[in-house]
Amino acid sequence: MPNISQRGVDMPASPIRKLAPLADAAKQRGVHVYHLNIGQPDLPTPQAALDAIRTIDRSVLEYSPSQGYRSYREKLVGYYKKYDINLTADDIIITTGGSEAVLFAFLSCLNPGDEIIVPEPAYANYMAFAISAGAVIRTVTTTIEEGFSLPKVEKFEELINERTKAILICNPNNPTGYLYSRREMNQIRDIVKKYDLYLFSDEVYREFIYTGSPYISACHLEGIEQNVVLIDSVSKRYSECGIRIGALITKNAEVRNAVMKFCQARLSPPLIGQIAAEASLDASEEYARETYDEYVERRKCLIDGLNRIPGVYSPIPMGAFYTVAKLPVDDADKFCAWCLSDFEYEGQTVMLAPASGFYTTPGLGKNEVRMAYVLKKEDLAKALTVLQKALEAYPGKTV
Ligand SMILES: Cc1ncc(COP(=O)(O)O)c(C=O)c1O
């Protein structure tokens, strides 16, 4: 039998999904599982998008242009303008989710062996896409003790060598909920400029910023316009994970031309998804406000609740809908598996994502988990009770 590729061997299993068989087994036993592990929003998709899909009036569901429909890209120009990001429709390439935008950015900008510096903990699929592109992720470590703020310039510079080609940030951050300050963004800009690197900036959570601090996009940074590749997605902002629509945005025509060749090879981004995404741009302000307010309340409910449990600590996330919390356990991987396989409280348990999968440095995140607050407040409150009971009962507890 032939061997599978080294790449196939090296691909990490998703830290979010790898406990899924244990969760399935718990459900089979009749246990209710609160999913705090996955960032799939449960809030409604804008009515305008649902209506647009319901009333599709086409006789052929054809391929769309490889870069996406012009009408949608033109409308997006207005959306970005509201965030002070000045684009033309030609700067925007529609992709099959933000996921494909990350992959195409890597494939277009990096040679095998090229290195990308990423603050860790990081969205785990970046590692998977880097392996797909033969690129190497090098991490600068951020810590829960420092609220996951960006390490000093020297920490980046220690990693920079002739293979370093890019910095990748996620802002607001998944998994930490951290929002980079103007000072931090300027620090990144200076490094990008000094070493002439690409800056891949994943800003899929820009709608969800809960502090008074301003949102500084990579596109706001002066002097590195040609270096910036923005990754975007409608999955989170409109609760539209399933329509698979994202975007890769750059002022750099050479990068766009390369990306377009990958786009042409995969023919077309989703047709129906684009129809829904374009209609979503007409969603009411009320929709945006209600969605936002709901996350504000959920954040408060989860973070307050976590910090009330003895031995648990969560910083207050400034954006997105995640937090990385420290638990009083010997090993969060074991604890998360144990919750699903050996524990229940009144017929319920919790599913959390062990944070180790978001770090590349071995041993880090050992007593941390990522939690998403995409459940209703009542369910979050119940999940917190179950978590507290689980921590009391866990044999490997440390308090
Ligand atoms: C930070 C970040 N980037 C990109 C994505 C990919 O989103 P999608 O492919 O659904 O657009 C996600 C999804 O969870 C994410 O959290």
From TrEMBL:
A Gene Ontology molecular function term of the record: transaminase activity
Signal peptide positions on this chain: none
Keyword Zinc part of the UniProt annotation: no
Keywords annotated in UniProt: Aminotransferase, Pyridoxal phosphate, Transferase
Cofactor(s) listed: pyridoxal 5'-phosphate
InterPro entries xref list: Aminotransferase_I/II_large (IPR004839), AspAT/PAT-like (IPR050596), PyrdxlP-dep_Trfase (IPR015424), PyrdxlP-dep_Trfase_major (IPR015421), PyrdxlP-dep_Trfase_small (IPR015422)
Pfam families cross-referenced by the UniProt entry: Aminotran_1_2
Domain of life (superkingdom): Bacteria
Positions of the Aminotransferase class I/classII large domain: 33-385
Gene3D superfamilies (alphabetical): Aspartate Aminotransferase, domain 1 (3.90.1150.10), Type I PLP-dependent aspartate aminotransferase-like (Major domain) (3.40.640.10)
Family: Belongs to the class-I pyridoxal-phosphate-dependent aminotransferase family.
Protein's recorded name: Pyridoxal phosphate-dependent aminotransferase
Organism of origin: Parabacteroides hominis
Species classification: Bacteria, Pseudomonadati, Bacteroidota, Bacteroidia, Bacteroidales
